[in-house]
Amino acid sequence: MNGFHHLEIWLPAHEVGGEDWSWLLGRLGFVLEQDWGTGRSWSAGGAYLTLTSSPNLADASHDRRRAGLNHLAFHGGTASEVDAVMAEATEHGWTPLYQDRYPHAGGPQHYAGWLENAAGFKAEVVAEETAGSEPPAERPAWRVRPETAADREAVRAVELAAFPTAEEADLVDALRADPGAWIDGLSYVAEDEAGDVVGHALLTRCLVGDRPALALAPCAVLPDRQRTGAGSAAIRGALEAARARGENLVIVLGHAEYYPRFGFARASGWGIVPPFEVPDEAFMALRLDPAAEVPRGTVGYPAAFGV
């Protein structure tokens, strides 16, 4: 019989029963078969994974860039199930990797998400191929960058084209004029090969209780470029820029089937509530820094939102 019998990973004793591994393995269908205090064995698919400590452990640190284990890859179910795992992971000690290229960081025909825990271990969650399906079509490689003053008319044109009224376009202009809300470098555009702006995503300052956070809104794509990845590219660019600035939390009100692909989860899980009535699943938050405390309370939007 071919295949692995089991895989054993040595960890420092305090990490063996960590919530990060316990959640991920349980979430992916592994069954806890043994727990002997200094180790645990989880089984799935006829093989098992052992996480254990040993008195012979020579180095408590793990560096996936050194010779040895780089990452573990797990079956994650359907693409939507992988999206759900990625959305929940930040609440359980895992940080998403390569978000600017999710879910195709491994190539256009490979749907997967990558996670890293605080100890530096990397896990890949891979979607199964749908029987009889065609390989995914190659999508344009959108160029994303921060908005410049020269982009203002183009950004307004995108907002006007994407929505039935001028409300969102006017909102962007009002936020841009509010120094307490606008943050240079967090208004992102996606442009095509000709350099034309086709998508836009905006992050502005809001509050959760009395703590600073960011609001993601609006997001827009030209109608003839929708469903091509332009909007996702602009959003990921803005989120990565926010993370690089040291921001901690992003709030969004939107489709519960769409935003979890970026790592958003229900805001209520952190005790964050909107200042208006809205379905719980539509009001979401993204934790950019897993090590930072998540503020709790009611979201306070800039005046331009009118709430």
Notes on the structure:
18% of the residues lie in helices and 30% in strands. The protein is an alpha+beta fold and 307 residues long. It folds into 2 domains: 6-126, 2,3-Dihydroxybiphenyl 1,2-Dioxygenase, domain 1; 143-305, Aminopeptidase (3-Layer(aba) Sandwich). Strands 9, 10, 11, 12, 13, 14, 15, 16 and 17 form a 9-stranded mixed sheet that branches. It has a 4-stranded mixed sheet with strand order 1-4-3-2, with no helix packed on it. A 4-stranded mixed sheet has the order 5-8-7-6, with helices on one face. The N and C termini lie far apart (64 Å).
Concise structural overview:
This protein is α+β, with helices and mostly antiparallel strands and 307 residues long.
Q: How many separate helices?
A: 5
Integer count of domains: 2
Helix content: 10-25%
Biggest beta-sheet profile:
9 strands, mixed
Indicate the overall shape: elongated
Mean pLDDT: 88
Compute the number of strand runs.
17
Strand content: 25-35%
State the separation between the terminal residues, measured CA to CA.
Answer: 64 Å
User: Per CATH, what is the topology of the largest domain?
Assistant: Aminopeptidase
- Give me the secondary-structure category: alpha+beta
The radius of gyration over CA amounts to 21 Å
List keywords for this structure.
Aminopeptidase, 4-stranded mixed sheet, 5 helices, 2,3-Dihydroxybiphenyl 1,2-Dioxygenase, domain 1, alpha+beta, 2 domains, 307 residues, 9-stranded mixed sheet
